[in-house]
Amino acid sequence: MSQAQLDKLGRVIYRERDKANLTQRELAEKAGTSHATIWHLECGDFKHPDPDKLQRIARALNLEVADLFVLVGYVPAESLPSFGTYLRIKWAAKLSAEDRKALERDFERRRDKHAKTTKQGERT
Q1: Between 22 and which of 4, 26, 69, 74 could a Cys-Cys bridge form, CB atoms 3.0 to 4.6 Å apart?
Q2: Mutual orientation of helices 35-43 and 3-19 as an angle, nearest 10°?
Q3: For the segment 2-39, what is each residue's pLDDT rounded down to a tens digit?
Q4: What topology does CATH give the domain 3-78?
Q5: How far apart are CA 92 and CA 3, in angstroms?
Q6: Which of these, 36, 65, 30, lies nearest to 51 by C-alpha position?
Q7: With contact defined as beta carbons under 8 Å apart, do 69 and 85 qualify?
Q8: What does the radius of gyration of the chain's CA atoms come to, in whole angstroms?
Q9: How deeply is 60 buried, as exposed, middle or buried, from its count of CB atoms within 10 A (0-12, 13-18, 19+)?
Q10: How far is residue 23 from each of residues 17, 69, 98, 108, measured CA to CA in Å?
Q11: Under a CB-based contact definition with an 8 Å cutoff, are residues 94 and 75 in contact?
Q12: Are 9 and 44 in contact (CB under 8 A)?
């Protein structure tokens, strides 16, 4: 995993810990790990963060475990479900089929616009 991924993980953990108004020691206690572990993760010092510790930290911060795993490359992006599948699985009880379809269309429109803009930027 790259240093950029580790730095991003550290920023996310710091940001979410700060939002939860927790000190590093308080988060460590909630996650069942050491203060030093939190400090090193936030600094991007671990080359291969322990998945079990990341899982406990994610839960202590009320984050999706998969989100932290994806940040450090433990779950390849290609193996994630499509946006439409994700909406159906995660939000079926809270969004109507019509709303899910509208979100999916909006996502596809934005994705296509971004791809087009990125491709044009490569030509210049």
Answers
A1: 26
A2: 120
A3: 899 999 999 999 999 999 999 999 999 999 999 999 99
A4: 434 Repressor (Amino-terminal Domain) (1.10.260)
A5: 37
A6: 65
A7: no
A8: 18
A9: buried
A10: 7, 23, 43, 40
A11: no
A12: yes
Q: Look-up: residue for tokens 């433990």?
A: 74
User: How long is the chain?
Assistant: 124
Are 10 and 44 in contact by the 8 Å Cβ rule? The answer is yes
Structure token pair of residue 87? 């909406």
Residue at token pair 């269309």: 105
Residue 32 gets the label, from left (phi > 0), alpha (psi -120 to 50) or beta, of left
Owner of token pair 């991003």 = 8
Considering the chain, tell me which residue range(s) the CATH 1.10.260.40 domain(s) occupy.
3-78
Using alpha carbons only, give the angle 43, 35, 52 rounded to the nearest 5 degrees: 80
In tens, the pLDDT along 53-96 reads 999 999 999 998 888 888 888 876 666 778 888 888 888 889 99
| Interior/surface letters 90-118, b for 16+ CB within 10 angstroms, e for the rest | eeeeeeeeeebeeebeeeeeeeeeeeeee
